[in-house]
Amino acid sequence: MKKLFVVLAVLFAGCGAEETSGEYLRIAGGGITFNYRYSQATMVLVARAMRPLPEGGSVEAIFDIPGEATRESVRRPVIAGKLTYKMESKYLSRIKKGVPLKVTLRALDKAGVVLDTKETSFTSDVDQDTLPSKPLVDPSKPNYIPQLENL
Predict the structure, then answer these.
(1) Taking the CA of residue 60 as centre, how many other CA atoms within 13 Å lie in the half-sphere pointing to its CB?
(2) Which region holds residue 5: left if phi is over 0, alpha if psi is between -120 and 50, else beta?
């Protein structure tokens, strides 16, 4: 019986312990999204905190912008206990089928020092010019009334 208590004590000793080494973030998901309703495309990245992030720090996603040499940076402040962070790019245009767009995920401390970096890329399976160029509904009208001239 004593052995059972010792084994249980050892097992429970590890419960609730926070990871204090290793990677800060992991890419949990994301991709290129196209909202047909409003005819808008964005890139989305979902980050998962693998261990507590430093107080006052931030999580940053840096997105490639199709057809441009510049990249867009999106930052979210670290919130104690928060496990996931969703970052979304500005509305994109000129997305081409099969052309990868790189996304960089970074964990930053209060001073802006990079603590962890991950990279991935997203690829569209359609050209943006094959999708509706105008919104299919008028967002200013209730109940998403279709704009038949755009269908």
Answers:
(1) 18
(2) alpha
HSE-CB for 31 with a 13 A CA cutoff = 8
pLDDT in tens, 35-54: 888 888 999 999 999 999 99
Which secondary-structure segment (H or E) carries 105?
Answer: strand 101-108
Full-model pTM: 0.79
Name the region of 30 (left: φ>0; alpha: ψ -120 to 50; beta: rest): left
Contact between 87 and 61 under an 8 Å Cβ cutoff? The reply is yes
Measured CA to CA, the distance from residue 73 to residue 66 in angstroms comes to 14
